Amino acid sequence: xxxxxxxxxxxxxxxxxxxxxxxxxxxxxxxxxxxxxxxxxxxxxxxxxxxxxxxxxxxxxxxxxxxxxxxxxxxxxxxxxxxxxxxxxxxxxxxxxxxxxxxxxxxxxxxxxxxxxxxxxxxxxxxxxxxxxxxxxxxxxxxxxxxxxxxxxxxxxxxxxxxxxxxxxxxxxxxxxxxxxxxxxxxxxxxxxxxxxxxxxxxxxxxxxxxxxxxxxxxxxxxxxxxxxxxxxxxxxxxxxxxxxxxxxxxxxxxxxxxxxxxxxxxxxxxxxxxxxxxxxxxxxxxxxxxxxxxxxxxxxxxxxxxxxxxxxxxxxxxxxxxxxxxxxxxxxxxxxxxxxxxxxxxxxxxxxxxxxxxxxxxxxxxxxxxxxxxxxxxxxxxxxxxxxxxxxxxxxxxxxxxxxxxxxxxxxxxxxxxxxxxxxxxxxxxxxxxxxxxxxxxxxxxxxxxxxxxxxxxxxxxxxxxxxxxxxxxxxxxxxxxxxxxxxxxxxxxxxxxxxxxxxxxxxxxxxxxxxxxxxxxxxxxxxxxxxxxxxxxxxxxxxxxxxxxxxxxxxxxxxxxxxxxxxxxxxxxxxxxxxxxxxxxxxxxxxxxxxxxxxxxxxxxxxxxxxxxxxxxxxxxxxxxxxxxxxxxxxxxxxxxxxxxxxxxxxxxxxxxxxxxxxxxxxxxxxxxxxxxxxxxxxxxxxxxxxxxxxxxxxxxxxxxxxxxxxxxxxxxxxxxxxxxxxxxxxxxxxxxxxxxxxxxxxxxxxxxxxxxxxxxxxxxxxxxxxxxxxxxxxxxxxxxxxxxxxxxxxxxxxxxxxxxxxxxxxxxxxxxxxxxxxxxxxxxxxxxxxxxxxxxxxxxxxxxxxxxxxxxxxxxxxxxxxxxxxxxxxxxxxxxxxxxxxxxxxxxxxxxxxxxxxxxxxxxxxxxxxxxxxxxxxxxxxxxxxxxxxxxxxxxxxxxxxxxxxxxxxxxxxxxxxxxxxxxxxxxxxxxxxxxxxxxxxxxxxxxxxxxxxxxxxxxxxxxxxxxxxxxxxxxxxxxxxxxxxxxxxxxxxxxxxxxxxxxxxxxxxxxxxxxxxxxxxxxxxxxxxxxxxxxxxxxxxxxxxxxxxxxxxxxxxxxxxxxxxxxxxxxxxxxxxxxxxxxxxxxxxxxxxxxxxxxxxxxxxxxxxxxxxxxxxxxxxxxxxxxxxxxxxxxxxxxxxxxxxxxxxxxxxxxxxxxxxxxxxxxxxxxxxxxxxxxxxxxxxxxxxxxxxxxxxxxxxxxxxxxxxxxxxxxxxxxxxxxxxxxxxxxxxxxxxxxxxxxxxxxxxxxxxxxxxxxxxxxxxxxxxxxxxxxxxxxxxxxxxxxxxxxxxxxxxxxxxxxxxxxxxxxxxxxxxxxxxxxxxxxxxxxxxxxxxxxxxxxxxxxxxxxxxxxxxxxxxxxxxxxxxxxxxxxxxxxxxxxxxxxxxxxxxxxxxxxxxxxxxxxxxxxxxx
Length: 1462
Description:
Elements: H1 10-19, H2 29-43, E1 45-49, H3 72-75, E2 91-95, E3 99-104, E4 111-118, H4 123-133, E5 141-147, H5 156-173, E6 175-179, H6 185-200, E7 209-215, E8 231-236, E9 255-260, H7 271-282, E10 297-302, H8 306-317, E11 322-325, H9 330-338, H10 348-359, H11 368-383, E12 388-391, H12 401-413, H13 420-431, H14 434-441, H15 454-462, H16 466-474, H17 479-482, H18 486-494, H19 500-517, H20 536-547, H21 572-576, H22 580-592, H23 598-608, H24 612-621, H25 625-642, H26 646-673, H27 675-683, H28 694-700, H29 704-707, H30 710-721, H31 730-738, H32 751-773, H33 777-780, H34 786-789, H35 797-805, H36 808-831, H37 840-861, H38 869-878, H39 880-899, H40 905-922, H41 934-969, H42 976-991, H43 1034-1088, H44 1097-1110, H45 1127-1153, H46 1156-1175, H47 1177-1210, H48 1222-1228, H49 1230-1233, E13 1273-1276, H50 1290-1293, E14 1304-1308, E15 1314-1326, E16 1334-1341, E17 1346-1348, E18 1351-1353, H51 1364-1368, H52 1370-1378, E19 1384-1391, E20 1400-1410, H53 1416-1427, E21 1432-1436, H54 1445-1457
Parallel strand pairs: 3-8, 4-9, 5-6, 5-10, 6-7, 7-9, 10-11, 11-12, 13-14, 15-20
Antiparallel strand pairs: 1-2, 3-4, 15-16, 15-18, 16-17, 16-21, 19-20
Helix pairs in contact: 1-19, 4-7, 5-6, 5-12, 8-11, 9-10, 12-13, 13-14, 15-16, 23-24, 23-25, 25-26, 25-28, 26-27, 26-45, 30-43, 36-37, 36-40, 36-43, 39-40, 41-42, 41-43
């Protein structure tokens, strides 16, 4: 198939392509480097100065570079003559000349990647560079680490916390760490953390991504990085001692983006590009999904100065959460000190005090206006408490920085009331931090619906996050609801990771497509709707292939889907010859009986991808856990046998053994609890596993340990004895076989008699207990187990006789007797009665053999388990005894054919004699049932295999010596039989002590040989001398014989003995297990075998032929090996099995908790906890002192407030005098400031302009508070931002903002000085007649892309905004205007608007008009809603509505007016 044929999904196409032959060659490293260099030159630029102008030094330009660093055109430029140097005009871009791999010297030879980029590079290009060219996986979290650029001291414990925390959060979440990239300050600490992780971790798979964004112009030794073709690698020397004002790159970062703005020696040139890159990355969807949350970003701050404060402030404005480390120094500690205080208490004086404390001598350089500006910024920062997190090592999360960072991100996501938990959970799943989800999301107060968490379950499954899967199951996810249709399960299979099963599915998919298209000659279309997609039909076929064709299909096919092809490759040829409709109908009939079990479905999904953790979770959820474990073992062993990767096959085999142990553990619990029920579990047909049994699955999976259990063997022994008791001695059974009337005397026990005896004893015990206690146990328990109250009936005379001779044990003994009789008759015919004309005894022998042949044919075609003819024939041939049966029958037939001819009569007898030997060897099969001799036969088989391979080694020495001896002794003997005799036969006999006489002259007899080889009965004489003595060198032949005896007799034979001894020791421990496993086949054979032994068995064969072939009657179902239980009994049995499984899991957990490894880990963890507590003891005391100081301060303030209240009450309302001091004025107005001043009106940047407000701290907002340094700029929109110098105009003095100072004078963007009236119209209605839902009318704002309330500027609150006429239409506008008088004013007054100035402000009125559902205005509005294409919409009044903050407040007031919960 072609690669462009409608591939619906990327993972799907990858799976399909993995099944195809490779269509491309792997690219060489040199070619990849050339391609990378070509991409860099086409997308990435550098900057260089194109105009040299002398700066402070004669040989240096104002750009900072020396004259020699400029090109010739820049020295004497003609284009810029007469101009002064400008960074924006005289710096040009060109192809970058520094990129490739960077290698740092020193220990470890760390390598990374780097590129020199222009400061104007688009962030999307950089992101493509990181992900596509440098092959970084998209991050699940972006950590921007900022702070002090100079080296600063961190306390040992805080440093350790930072290193562990930043690495753990990056490692567990798959985050990118962005820093400045140099070997100083906070960047150096991040590099050390990455280094510590690299040294402690041996796994390259979990590499930490640390990206350094540094300024190119401040990098020391950057010349070594320059090469126009790229450096692979560039050897960089970090010479810290000689760097001067420059900085060296940190050798522990993995990637470097070196930002070039064309200047030299100027720091901070990378800040703008770094912020753009961070903003772009945080706008990408998490996991490259089309929808969902974006990549979260967090800013981690250590130390820092004023520049760091600006970074924190901008991050808060952009909605990025910030985590500050208390104790790291300077600005981080300043903010940490005031983070818990109310904004009103963060005063200028307090910031002065803290700046002096934490900045030291650096504080003396700060101007007062800067302190005021920073105070305002700090107030804005701590006002956004949801975005600010202070990590206090003595208090937070037991000192875990990673938890504090992730909690900060979740805290930031809680701001939106609508679906905030979903974003938090999606982030926690992406980070794979189940601890965060448990502590922050799945709390005791939260209650979840299963449907709300289905998407999370799907993400956790596809992302292989077993801990989250278990957490979701514990918090209410129902697997029945999750997999209520096959769409979800099919999608899970489509998103399987690359694994062996996925490749098999892809191959089956291609085979399916070819089988559908080739017979009809249909050409595939490139864009057909039916692309190559995996369906549950393909999954079902492949699972059935792995489980075995004896199982029924597990998943029903679609009602309208055609039947593609048969389930197994072996059955393809037979299925094509069948009628298509008949095949489809039979398949659906099989499927109709298969119930669904979501635990089984997900267990299968996990097993086929060899996912141990997920498989363990869903095995616990399976309804039939023993069958599930055995089925998993079968599937894994089948895949391990077919897999080509040795490591993958070994992992599958290991997991298969693990689930065999699970099956053994649960079944042992079942057997110890109730032996009868446990035996039912073995032979019951499991509806959810293809109607097969546990015993059959264990046999097919070759789970010898499971079958070897005493409980399984007890069942097999019970089946072996049939209706006879297992306690009967063998001699009694043998006696009753001959003298059957003894069975009526009680000489032989029957199983039913034992059951009746046990029931009788039980009833007697109950009667005795009732007589002693006076209770009525039988009456109370009469309705609990009705089947057990039915007493089994005694066996009749005929039934006992039938039970005796239909017992597999008796059948086996009769067949042994029959076989001995057959061998006796065979021996008599061969030795006494073998004539040209067959005698009566010989004819009887032939009839006897015919009955044996018929039985062998019956065994091949008897397929009660539904294996199919090919599978059954394969199983037949795999048995050694069956091979001997076939060989003996073939030899007998050939010998019989020769015997019936005159020419080959004697040859036929010889063949029959050899055949007698084979029949005698077949006699060893009778010992397989013996517990003593059965395992020894297994050892003999293994030794025969060893001896077979040993003979190859022995034959080398035999032939080597024999040929050499024959060539030395005999000259040109052309008689083949004497050559073979001398070269092979005689050397072989020497091993067993038959020493030759012709190698020694002393024993030479010329009469025992012929000189010329003319006598066929004598060997040829050796070469003779003239005196008729052998001419060969006697010393050589004797030495050769000695060497041959040394190696053959002593070395090789002892080697064979050692091999046999090793085989015996190795197999001895497993022979009992192997014998018990193979015992099943013998029991199964004789259970299905007719009762009569050969030759009388021919009558049974004739009866079976007439019944099945002539009368076409179905075979009798055998309940001993496959029992269909009633539904009620099935459910009871599975419930009991689930209880036993829980007991097994509990006992397993107890064993693990009591193991030595677990105890060592627990002890180590406790020691670590104690040491951490000892380290935090002193800081905890300091924190307690700080808390007490704050409490004391609060008490003082409360006392002052209470004193003022008492004074006011005493003076009966007269105001108290206030002092003129600004600090005292602030303290005395605490109660007033609790209401809060306007915030939006003091934002730093005025909207729709480039103007910046004058910073106004919280304490300086009221006009009553003096602010001598207050010098706001003037702005009016029609003046295009003109500034007015000097004194203010008289017109502005007449208007003063009632909310206080705003940091800007003039009218601003408002229409007039003073109040600007605005009206918000809230039109409400009841959605239906029962008045359960209140709705409001919303307007879609095209410019903002959001919903708003209809409203706008008005001259009076009694009129509607004119701008609504365009939105609603003239007619509707007039009708609503008429309703204004009937409306209710919800609120009116000053609004905290970002357009407000000192002299102009917005005052808003909220008007609610409630309409009746039957009014004409409602009809007109509804018509407008329908015809307006979304411009007008009815929305429910609730907290989930997406409006601006002011409009949400208005809606909340309207909801309160109508007594609705918002």
